[in-house]
């Protein structure tokens, strides 16, 4: 194993730069100068987001291979751009790594991030590398292009708009809860669908761009805080409430098994914090069919799970028996970075 | 003292966001959505750079107050934009902090960064906050606007162009060497000019923009790796050599005192790595007077210290007696992040 300290900072940077290539759409000056220079398209606004992973906090090295982790960090950022209907363009990656870090593992991490970005037409154009004597971390800043004045926000949901969610929310959070309880083996075959949801999320960039082009989405949010938490953000920003039908969510046998193993209700996992990088959308009911058709054509599950309501009703969910409860009373408790789990 | 864990992640983010304001030039959607949305000017390219500070690696808490540290991180990034002739526009700040971090200290850090950016017309538009159980870190990504195809690079220096440097290179590095040897007291009154150079650098953004508007600069580099290291980058990228006159540098009594205390030659400190965030420029000799006049009008010392030469001559320096030596043999050794100091 070759360690970072065996090569030194400048040689490692040279390897990272050579491995990722330097030319691409909209890149005027690639890595190797004081800054990268990129060229936005005329008439485009830019969406800018940053997200970080810290060892022992967002992942453990025995949970996930470096290349998969790099892809996961990219997808986490890509999902924020998807929630703005922005087309991913350029990223810069900042690393804090131990001097004993394996050079090949670092190159694999970058490869994972670069390939995930490339699937959406985006390029890594720069970065920074520093040593840390403690938990390692990586911070990715991503820039996307979005049609002027057409970025999706959290503030556009109207009373009567539909609440839609992509995919199977709750799976990634269930995987983490299982792994925290039973160790890395919980991420093995027994809970494959959940482990995959946590390890290898796919940001819904194509869906977002197609829906944005067609129209009908009035607000959007990335679900990293969970349905209860992130819908609350949309409702607050939009000045509305929301009523969900618990029976409307797609059946999820994998989540049900995890809920049983964890001694929790499946709804609690589904509505609580879970880094699935799914989207919640507000959809104009007149455009429902068109949106559903677009999602189907891209193979993305898109489920209408409720409606936005007048604000005083708050955020509620109704079960099969017609009983309603506040969303926050159903959702599993979240993770606060600054408070013990 | 109120700690981050006393308030929790969401309240701390709310405080940080409220404290920095959200509106400004070119900001379409400020903090609080999945991503910030900003609007470039028509016909502008964008320069993107990222830089990080790690506790114990780039600074020690007893060396520098939080507000000054925040400003310093901003200036480090601003200097990279200056070296591209880019006008600072927007920043995103990613933090890894201990749960016991003082909330007021965090707000002071952000205030320092925000004020430094504001001096150059730039705004903090987003960020990320995560907990770390180990050395704290902060990573700033900065985006600037630059006239299409007019970004300064390292590759434009021509044989016969002048080598110019701003300020008094070497001071910050001397301060760090003194502090590593004698502790924080070395950053006190005895070495005030050096301590100030390290603590409170001022990126030469205005100078860069004025020179770029007037013309005459053919290449530029930020001197964070020191004159010997960074001029070597320019020479390699431009396919030229360089010959410096050691006697041409401005007299620097403060640096001379530090050199004596450290048992090093002043030239060694001046040419070696030193985070002064000064610029080295290649200047067309026909534009020398115009460039000097601009620098004088802005109160920035700009000194012509040599010439770019044909490549085979390499990078050399001539002393008062006419003796020449290779730059790398004079410069103090640098810091490799992955090798022990």
Unreliable segments of chain A (pLDDT under 50, ≥5 consecutive)? none
Average per-residue pLDDT of chain A, rounded, comes to: 93
Write the H/E string of chain A, N to C. Answer: HHEEEHEHEEEHHHEHEHHEHEEEH
Give the chain pair forming the largest contact, with residue counts: A-B, 74 and 74 residues
Binned strand content of chain A? 25-35%
Largest sheet descriptor of chain A: 7 strands, mixed
Number of helical segments of chain A? 12
Instruction: Find the structural class of chain A using helix and strand composition.
Output: alpha+beta
Spatial ordering of strands, largest sheet of chain A = 8-10-7-11-9-12-13
Radius of gyration of chain A equals: 21 Å
Shape of chain A: globular
DSSP strand tally of chain A = 13
* Quaternary structure: homodimer
The separation of the N and C termini of chain A measures: 35 Å
The percentage helix of chain A is: 25-40%
């Amino acid at each position: 194993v070759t360690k970072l300290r065996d090569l030194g900072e400048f040689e490692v940077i040279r390897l990272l730069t050579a491995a990722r290539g330097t030319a691409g759409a909209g890149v005027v000056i690639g890595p190797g100068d004081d800054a990268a220079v990129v060229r936005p398209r005329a008439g485009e606004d830019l969406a800018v987001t940053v997200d970080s992973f810290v060892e022992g906090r967002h992942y453990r090295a025995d949970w996930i291979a470096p290349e998969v982790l790099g892809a996961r960090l990219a997808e986490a950022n890509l999902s924020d751009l998807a929630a703005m209907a922005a087309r991913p363009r350029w990223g810069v990656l900042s690393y804090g790594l131990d001097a004993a870090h394996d050079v090949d593992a670092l190159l694999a991490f970058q490869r994972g991030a670069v390939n995930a970005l490339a699937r959406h037409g985006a390029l890594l154009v720069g970065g920074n590398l520093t040593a840390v004597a403690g938990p390692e971390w990586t911070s990715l800043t991503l820039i996307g292009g979005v049609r002027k004045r057409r970025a999706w926000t959290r503030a556009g949901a109207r009373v009567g708009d539909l609440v839609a969610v992509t995919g199977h929310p709750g799976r990634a959070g269930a995987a983490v809860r299982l792994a925290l309880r039973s160790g890395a083996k919980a991420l093995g075959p027994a809970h494959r669908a959940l482990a995959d949801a946590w390890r290898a999320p796919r940001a819904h960039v194509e869906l977002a761009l197609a829906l944005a082009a067609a129209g009908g989405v009035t607000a959007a949010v990335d679900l990293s805080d969970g349905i209860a938490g992130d819908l609350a953000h949309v409702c607050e920003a939009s000045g509305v409430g929301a009523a969900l039908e618990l029976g409307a969510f797609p059946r999820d046998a994998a989540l049900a098994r995890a809920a049983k193993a964890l001694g929790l209700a499946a709804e609690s996992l589904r509505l609580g914090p879970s880094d699935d990088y799914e989207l919640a959308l507000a959809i104009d009911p007149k455009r429902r069919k068109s949106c559903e058709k677009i999602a189907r054509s891209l193979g993305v599950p898109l489920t209408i799970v409720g409606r936005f309501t007048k604000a005083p009703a708050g955020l509620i969910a109704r079960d099969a028996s017609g009983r309603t409860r506040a969303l926050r009373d159903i959702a599993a408790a979240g993770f606060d970075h600054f408070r013990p789990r």
